[in-house]
Amino acid sequence: MPRPRKCRRVCAMPENQGFEPLGKQEKYCGNRIVKMSIDEYETIRLIDWEKLTQVQCSEQMGIARTTVTGIYDSARTKLADALIHGKMLKIQGGDYTLCSGDKEKCSGHCCKIEKEKER
C-alpha cells in the first residue's frame, strides 16, 4: 500500500489563477491547457522568486526535500510546456493547506511577506 500524501503548507493563494499566450485566437481544448497545482506554484515561488534552497523550501512547506525536488521538476516541466508550445496555464488544486502565519511552523517567510504587504 502506498504511503498517504502529506499536505504541503502554502503561504498564500496565487494572485493569478493562470495565464494565456498573447495572440492566440483559437479555443483552448483539453490538450492546450497545462494544469499546475497550488503546491507546484508554491515551490516555483519559494525557490525561484524567494531564492530559497530546496532544503529551506521543504522546511517551509513541511515536506521532505526529495518531495520538493519532484514537485519542482514537475512544475518546471509544466511551465516550459506552456511557454514553448503556447498553451494556457491554469493554477488550481493539489494537496495543500494554507499557512496559519505561525512563525515557528513557516520559518518566518510567510510572516515576513504578510508584514511587507501591510505597509
TrEMBL record:
<dbReference type="InterPro" id="IPR002852">
    <property type="entry name" value="UPF0251"/>
</dbReference>
<protein>
    <recommendedName>
        <fullName>UPF0251 protein H8S22_07105</fullName>
    </recommendedName>
</protein>
<comment type="similarity">
    <text>Belongs to the UPF0251 family.</text>
</comment>
<dbReference type="Pfam" id="PF02001">
    <property type="entry name" value="DUF134"/>
</dbReference>
